């Protein structure tokens, strides 16, 4: 992989390859799961413990090969079985000193051979292998009473893979031959070993005991157990998978990307069959742990990661990335980047919104264009429509936050909280310097810097009185484009002319229709409209 990250910790579909393998293993509901580590041992062991604290992490020694890896695991599992048996004997007062003496003289282990039953072995770099396929392999092993059952598949180019050599007539597996050790005739075979097996524990234990490193790679091959099982008269059979991608391994980043795309294709296909609309699967990525309800719509450019959960009727995208976000029914999230947040039912978010962790938006709420939120609760029906930052804030229900507002939550040392009540209306370009509270039903004036609490139902105003210094530009910056524009405007006003070109007839009609629909107040050019005195008479 040419990486400081161990191969099995590279991820696809939101889960490491080790995570995919351990998840598939756990779906069998096994008595024990053992993870063998060697290269970058500490990183892999920590990841395994986080994925499954009950898993047994086993160190492989310096002897290379898959056979040695499994031997180390089986020794550890046998030791665990012996410990459990010993504890039971102590509990039952059934420990026999004579058994210990027999063992010391070279007899059988006083606590039995160790682990019994079926042992499933799989590699940590086969990310598309699932629990259902492992379940079929295990069922075939039990049904046939096999000593060894191998999962195989057929590929067009088998270069580098171990070949399955079958017995003519019965189809039983005679041997698994590694590519480097194969004869020219064996290299023509297309059926390959997937490195996924089920062994009878006793057969595996005996076979591992006789393994050596007499091969082209100088390793202990697990595949040699197949030959030893055959020599004992045990049945060795193969389950042929007709889906080569299920057992495709990853050895470089090219394969990682290829299998990642295939995994995503399969995930999307499953969701579409379950009632989710994916408008453009080619640009939509959904991790394996994401949950989607029927009638969810995913628009192009959508990426859903981690434990994201989207409820029925919600629309996500286009161009939206959500990680560990919960989206309520009927919500709309457009061109948004969000993580560790909750979006309520029928809420709207975006476009161009940024939801940082611990954002909670209530039902019918709105987080609009160019709005960033963090560690904040925004109540039902409340709106932060545009150009604002809301951090460490609690906003009640049905409150409207004016454009270009900022909750100033950090004093350079600690974060402080802003509280804005329900049914409040805050003006545009407000700064709320935390800690501060704006009460229910209160208003704040545009351009205010709110540093004191505003009681419920009050108007908070914090701004200096405006003063106009006339002629300042022409005096301070004579000859500049601004000064010349000011001089022209004064001349036009004096002559009663319109300053600048007016709207055409069609544009005026469209503006009038828009104002009628929205209730907007039309803008009237004072230079073109007669003024009136206080009693309503026209002034000329």
TrEMBL record:
Span list, region Pyrophosphorylase: 1-253
Keyword annotations from UniProtKB, A to Z: Acyltransferase, Cell shape, Cell wall biogenesis/degradation, Cytoplasm, Magnesium, Metal-binding, Multifunctional enzyme, Nucleotidyltransferase, Peptidoglycan synthesis, Repeat, Transferase
Binding, Mg(2+): 125, 251
Catalytic activity: alpha-D-glucosamine 1-phosphate + acetyl-CoA = N-acetyl-alpha-D-glucosamine 1-phosphate + CoA + H(+); N-acetyl-alpha-D-glucosamine 1-phosphate + UTP + H(+) = UDP-N-acetyl-alpha-D-glucosamine + diphosphate
TM region positions: none
Major localization class: cytoplasm
Active site, per annotation: 386
Binding positions (acetyl-CoA): 403, 409-410, 446, 463
MobA-like NTP transferase domain residues: 3-154
Region (Linker): 254-274
Entry's cofactor comment: Binds 1 Mg(2+) ion per subunit.
One protein family per Pfam: NTP_transf_3
Cofactor(s) named in the record: Mg(2+)
Pathway: Nucleotide-sugar biosynthesis; UDP-N-acetyl-alpha-D-glucosamine biosynthesis; UDP-N-acetyl-alpha-D-glucosamine from N-acetyl-alpha-D-glucosamine 1-phosphate: step 1/1; Bacterial outer membrane biogenesis; LPS lipid A biosynthesis; Nucleotide-sugar biosynthesis; UDP-N-acetyl-alpha-D-glucosamine biosynthesis; N-acetyl-alpha-D-glucosamine 1-phosphate from alpha-D-glucosamine 6-phosphate (route II): step 2/2
Stretches the record annotates as Disordered: 487-540
InterPro entries referenced in this protein's UniProt entry, alphabetically: Bifunctional_GlmU, GlmU-like, GlmU_C_LbH, MobA-like_NTP_Trfase, Nucleotide-diphossugar_trans, Trimer_LpxA-like_sf
Primary enzyme class: transferase
Assembly and interaction partners: Homotrimer.
Family: In the C-terminal section; belongs to the transferase hexapeptide repeat family. In the N-terminal section; belongs to the N-acetylglucosamine-1-phosphate uridyltransferase family.
Annotated protein name in UniProt: Bifunctional protein GlmU
Gene: glmU
């Amino acid at each position: 992989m040419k990486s400081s990250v161990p191969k099995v910790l590279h991820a696809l579909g939101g889960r490491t390859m080790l995570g995919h393998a351990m998840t598939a293993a756990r779906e069998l509901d096994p008595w024990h799961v053992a993870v063998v580590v060697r290269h970058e041992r500490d990183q892999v062991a920590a990841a395994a413990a986080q994925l499954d604290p009950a898993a047994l992490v086993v160190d492989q020694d310096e002897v290379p090969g898959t056979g040695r890896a499994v031997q180390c695991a089986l020794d550890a599992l046998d030791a665990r079985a012996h410990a459990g048996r010993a504890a039971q004997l102590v509990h039952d007062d059934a420990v026999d000193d004579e058994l210990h003496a027999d063992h010391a003289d070279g007899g059988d282990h006083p606590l039995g051979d160790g682990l019994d039953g079926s042992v499933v072995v799989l590699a940590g770099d086969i990310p598309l292998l699932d629990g259902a396929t492992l379940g079929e392999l295990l069922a075939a092993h039990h049904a046939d009473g096999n000593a060894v059952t191998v999962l195989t598949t057929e590929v067009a180019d088998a270069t580098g893979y171990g070949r399955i050599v079958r017995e003519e007539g019965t189809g039983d597996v005679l041997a698994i031959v590694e590519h480097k050790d194969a004869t020219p005739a064996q290299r023509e075979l297309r059926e390959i070993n997937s490195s996924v097996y089920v062994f009878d524990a006793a057969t595996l234990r005996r076979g591992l005991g006789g393994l050596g490193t007499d091969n082209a790679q100088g390793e202990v091959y697990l595949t040699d157990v197949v030959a030893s099982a055959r020599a004992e008269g045990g049945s060795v059979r193969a389950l042929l998978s007709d889906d080569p991608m299920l057992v495709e391994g990853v050895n470089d980043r090219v394969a990682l990307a290829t299998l990642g795309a295939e995994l995503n294709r399969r995930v999307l296909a499953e969701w579409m069959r379950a009632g989710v609309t994916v408008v453009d699967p080619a640009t939509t990525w959904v991790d394996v742990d994401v949950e989607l309800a029927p009638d969810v719509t995913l628009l192009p450019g959508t990426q859903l990661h981690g434990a994201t959960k989207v409820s029925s009727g919600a629309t996500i995208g286009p161009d939206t990335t959500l990680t560990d976000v919960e989206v309520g029914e009927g919500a709309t999230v457009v061109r948004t980047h969000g993580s560790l947040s909750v979006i309520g039912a029928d809420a709207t978010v975006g476009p161009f919104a940024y939801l940082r962790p611990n954002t909670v938006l209530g039902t019918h709420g709105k987080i609009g264009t160019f709005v960033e939120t963090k560690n904040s609760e925004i109540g039902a029906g409340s709106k932060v429509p545009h150009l604002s930052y809301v951090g460490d804030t609690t906003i009640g229900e049905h409150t409207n936050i004016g454009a270009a507002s900022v909750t100033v939550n950090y004093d350079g040392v600690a974060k402080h909280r802003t509280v804005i009540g329900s049914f409040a209306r805050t003006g545009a370009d407000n700064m709320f310097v935390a800690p501060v509270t704006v009460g229910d039903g209160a208003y704040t004036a545009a351009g205010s810097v709110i540093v004191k609490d505003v009681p419920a139902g009050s108007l908070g105003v914090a701004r200096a009185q405006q003063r106009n210094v006339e002629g300042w530009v022409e005096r301070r910056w004579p000859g500049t484009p601004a000064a010349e524009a000011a001089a022209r405007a004064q001349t036009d006003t004096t002559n009663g002319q319109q300053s600048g070109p007016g709207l055409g007839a069609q544009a005026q009609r469209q503006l009038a229709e828009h104002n009628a629909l929205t209730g907007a107040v039309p803008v009237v050019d004072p230079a073109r409209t007669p003024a009136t005195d206080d009693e309503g008479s026209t002034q000329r």
